[in-house]
Amino acid sequence: MVTIRDLMIALSIKNLTKTYSNGNQALKGIDLSVESGDFYALLGPNGAGKTTAIGIVSSLVNKSGGEVEVFGHSIDKELEAAKACIGIVPQEVNLNLWESVGNIVTNQAGYYGLHGKLAKQRVEKYLRALRLWDRRNDVARSLSGGMKRRLMIARALVHEPRLLILDEPTAGVDIEIRRSMWEFLEQINEAGTTIILTTHYLEEAESLCRHIAIIDEGTIIEDAKMSDVLRKLQREVFVLSLTEELLEAPALDGFMTRLRGERELEVEKGPGCDLNDLFVQLNARNIHVSSLRNKANRLEELFMRLVENKQAEADT
Ligand code: ADP
After folding, report:
1. What DSSP line would sit under the chain, residue for residue?
2. Could you tell me the residue ranges of all domains in the chain?
3. Which residue lies with its CA nearest to atom 10 of ligand 1?
4. Which protein residue's CA is at the shortest distance from atom 16 of ligand 1?
5. How far is ligand 1, taken at its centre, from the CA of residue 54, in Å?
6. Residue 316 above 70 pLDDT?
7. Homologous superfamily in CATH for domain 4-231
8. Quick check: 298 pLDDT over 50?
């Protein structure tokens, strides 16, 4: 039975696992909950498991275990109802390149039971919205890369799904097209469509999304509001080696402290605080520091890696 609460949750994933036949464990039991109306980023480096997760939700990939519900419809028990709620824009171009732009979107409308005048109206609406109406009689093969991607978005939207999932929507498209795509996605989100996108562009997730889940090696390592994640990234943690033993961590204004060993103190610095102030307070307590290092945290490490990936891509 679909409850009111289910209607508020666009996508619920519980303990989802996937092991491919070659033994690759792509998902190791992930949990995600996407609220209706949200703009949600699933961020992670290549090979993290993003496409596998999306593939399972859109029933292109069989799961090994766990549960998936789309607006309260289980993909095991009510697959058709679940599918009707979803529009998918895959990472790879999977258009019939010899078919006309108009036919591709019209056929998709037919697949979802839309025919006649309504289908025509919808096809026109979304081809116009994605600036492809003038190309409706051309075969898909004649479109540029960016246009093909826009066509896949029009095709995904023609049945007006409540949840739009885009897998790396702007991978390989130039910056101008990327920005216009972002604007379009923002508009349809404002109009009420829940959007989930996978990306490994930090900037994309940051500009668009209100919620972020970070996946790495088949495990969710962060799942929070974007604002909270960004705030966390601004924090820095230092590990201080002390010349003398301490029995307990000192309470310092503007800093969180934690004793890691008798002579090691972990200090977390908020965005507005400076290190001089830390040392003034330590001096006043007669605590002396012999050395100091930055503590790398997993999230920072992951972000560093993502930035490196991005850089490597830009260089190729
Ligand atoms: P992402 O989309 O985050 O780049 P994927 O979901 O594509 O990650 O891949 C997750 C892991 O599963 C990777 O180790 C990848 O090599 C593996 N994988 C993906 N598809 C298959 C497949 N069809 N058969 C075997 N392993 C796969």
Report:
1. ---HHHHHEEEEEEEEEEE-TTS-EEEEEEEEEEETT-EEEEE--TTSSHHHHHHHHTTSS--SEEEEEETTEETTT-HHHHHHTEEEE-SS----TTSBHHHHHHHHHHHTT--HHHHHHHHHHHHHHTT-GGGTTSBGGGS-HHHHHHHHHHHHHTT--SEEEEESTTTT--HHHHHHHHHHHHHHHHTT-EEEEEES-HHHHHHH-SEEEEEETTEEEEEEEHHHHHHHHH-EEEEEEESS--SSPPPBTTEEEEEEETTEEEEEE-TT--HHHHHHHHHHTT--EEEEEEPP-HHHHHHHHHHHHHHHHHH-
2. 4-231, 235-296
3. 49
4. 47
5. 11
6. no
7. P-loop containing nucleotide triphosphate hydrolases (3.40.50.300)
8. no
